[in-house]
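hiii so my PI (J.) wants the whole complex modelled not just the main chain, which honestly fair. so below is everything: two entries, each one labled with what it is. i double checked the lines twice but i was tired so who knows lol
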Amino acid sequence: MIKEWVKGKKPDDEVLAARLEKARYELAKRQQMIKEKKLPVLVVLDGWGAAGKGSVLGRIIKNLDPRFFKTFTLTKASEEEKRRPFLYRYFNKIPEAGKIVFFDGSWMDEVTRGYLKGTVKPKEYEKRLESIKRFERQLNDNGYLVVKFFFQIGQEEQRLRLKRLKEDKNTGWRVDKWDEWQNRHYDRCMEVYDKYLDATNQFIAPWYFVDSKNRKWAELQVTELLVQSIDIALKNAGRSVPILQNTFPLVKMPLLSEISLDQKVEDAKYRQELDRLQKRLSELHNEIYHKKIPVIIAYEGWDAAGKGGNIKRLAAALDPRGYEVHPIASPEPHEKSRHYLWRFWTRLPKKGHIAIFDRTWYGRVMVERLEGFCSENDWQRAYTEINEFEKELDDWGAVIVKFWVQIDQDTQLERFTDRQNTPEKQWKITDEDWRNREKWDQYEVAVNEMIQKTSTEFAPWHILESNDKHYARLKALETVIAAIEQRLKK
Amino acid sequence: MIKEWVKGKKPDDEVLAARLEKARYELAKRQQMIKEKKLPVLVVLDGWGAAGKGSVLGRIIKNLDPRFFKTFTLTKASEEEKRRPFLYRYFNKIPEAGKIVFFDGSWMDEVTRGYLKGTVKPKEYEKRLESIKRFERQLNDNGYLVVKFFFQIGQEEQRLRLKRLKEDKNTGWRVDKWDEWQNRHYDRCMEVYDKYLDATNQFIAPWYFVDSKNRKWAELQVTELLVQSIDIALKNAGRSVPILQNTFPLVKMPLLSEISLDQKVEDAKYRQELDRLQKRLSELHNEIYHKKIPVIIAYEGWDAAGKGGNIKRLAAALDPRGYEVHPIASPEPHEKSRHYLWRFWTRLPKKGHIAIFDRTWYGRVMVERLEGFCSENDWQRAYTEINEFEKELDDWGAVIVKFWVQIDQDTQLERFTDRQNTPEKQWKITDEDWRNREKWDQYEVAVNEMIQKTSTEFAPWHILESNDKHYARLKALETVIAAIEQRLKK
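here's the output for the full assembly
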């Protein structure tokens, strides 16, 4: 299908030169507008080896202000990157607001190459197509412009170009085995590319098929389409995005008000159980390390609910070389100027490691919602975006455990008062805690909505009843142990 | 992929009964809200023969107010429908604002069945998938809720059900040959369905996979998902929709101000040529009738530009049994309460016929834009929507000719004055014409934007320079003749 989309016909050289000059000028102007309007732009150049992606890119950036764009040539994933979800290295590199990022080769290349070589199996491939569609749509929904070009040349043209490149000592190194494999299996590749382009050709991020036989003509097509795309994106800037239907299977969860909080553990029992569970978790940590299973543990809960102490007891069981605790505060400027999940994507553990998040991406639908740090449209969209994020983690093979640490209002007041009156605990209580406490009811509405909408079958919430902190600590250990054991059984 | 989405597990009978009662009540409440908020809802039930779509639908509508919903059982297209684009009979039946339409079987059934039987070829099939995606997205963008269910049962279960139905005299008639074919070729069908569901599983109109082994459980899934979908759609109501990137190849067109209007034809030449061209068109009309090629001719232009007289000369060449002129005024209430293209879809000619539109769907980006009859978001979106509409016509095999009848302001004033001063022409001039004339400059901006953005390679605009009406009439005839001749050569 996509093959039918070649845009227009190459104009005469004179017309081409004039249009190119104008288009370059217009694009330079657009860079200013992007900067002013804080639009983040991601440009993806994919296509056949030797189709001229690199040289077109080289020409285009000549006219741009280097402070406001970056280019990445995406070859093979590094060892570090291979131990992360496959989108990790791309999510990592998304532009800041007001800047352009050019990818010379993208997730398309990685995924189709793996599929063609048989290292990515058909089922896995289908899953990745879904992931890619979600990724591109999420970027778009969060205000990014994503423009995708596929550079097209015929088999014979590619063969000739590769031959010419090889014969020249200065360019011979640019021809790798993959390019030659591609040329020999041109039809098979085209079939796979065609299906890929079709499958990922979304209304919000369509593919543009670039006739690449002539370098200047290719540059003109890319430049004009970039200008056009930026103009439309600027028109869309700030427009609210329709909320999507939920398509994730949800687990039925209780409301906070329905949760009983009178569980208690005796001291002796607590110490004995804590010891036993920590030993078991320690064993499991070894096992997941060897089996390269990543584990993500997320903590949310009321102030003074006992998150810190709870995490401490969990961490105490773990080998420090294999886990990390990420305390999450408000985002830094460089984090704020990107997709709100960026700072979590970049903090994902390696396979075999454990990441514990002390507060999480759920800030979007709690504090950011209630304090107005994002728009209503933003937090309403976030339930699906977060479910999609966790689906990525699940597809990757991660164990995901999400805790809501629950106490009642009286218990919070007691603990606040105790903190205020105990000199060595005073650092733990701030004016903000008191202010948040006044908004308890609003928070309860938000937390209930969050738990109902994000308890998916692959990443359900677990409630830790924490009026008795000892009870909550044991339950946390038990829950993590059960989740890991279940995964190991698979 | 889609097969992994089965929603949850069937609860115990008691829980199921309680949830079902609640869900039915909630859905009835939603019907009221739909009515109040003027939300149009399109529910599609697809799936295996004997999976129970009909009986679930029967249960669901029992609790609804019959004044505000309709059901259609979509079996084979009628002869009338077969002579129209394949989406015609579905577009025809879309709900009015505030109402629900249920489709028992949809475009999915028609298209996959054709593909399985070999009557829809692979290339055509791919095109139809694109058409379906655009159709569903356009409905969504225009405020429709589209909910799609696929009823799933296994091969053995289907076989048993078909056997049971056949054995009973009262139900035997319900089993048709197709159901049995489907059951015998279950795996092949599943493969095709799976790909179809994947390809058309859009974020804005996802598929829900209904586990249909148990009737009540199937009803519960459908009812709960309907309630959930309606709630989200109500939240989205009135939200502006992001404008899409253009993906259609455009033809470069001049601005109105660049068009020279001093062409002239002498009287004798005019009469001679008119006669010759009308004869030729008349021959061609015969030919397209026999070859079953549909022709769509669209007229837009300034008031008093001479559209009426121009159309008359064209129509004079045609056999009245094979063409229709559609004068387009402002929409009736039942047209206004549907997608703005509905009244044009329903006026499409049969194959082999000619439809002439005196004013068109371009009203959206001219009068509706300038008079505020639609929102800015609506008309900005319309360029792509109209290109997509014309792409449907092109895919269907239609010849599309679009005329902009151009005059200058002085000529218009002359003609207005003449009309005013000539008793038998006075009906042709109204206060509105004078008011429109005052907005000439605004209209010119809109017309220029329209011509630039909707001159696609498959449906370009043609300018009729009409200061000399005779010249314009000959050019119209020539243009139509050339377009038909070109199509006949293919």
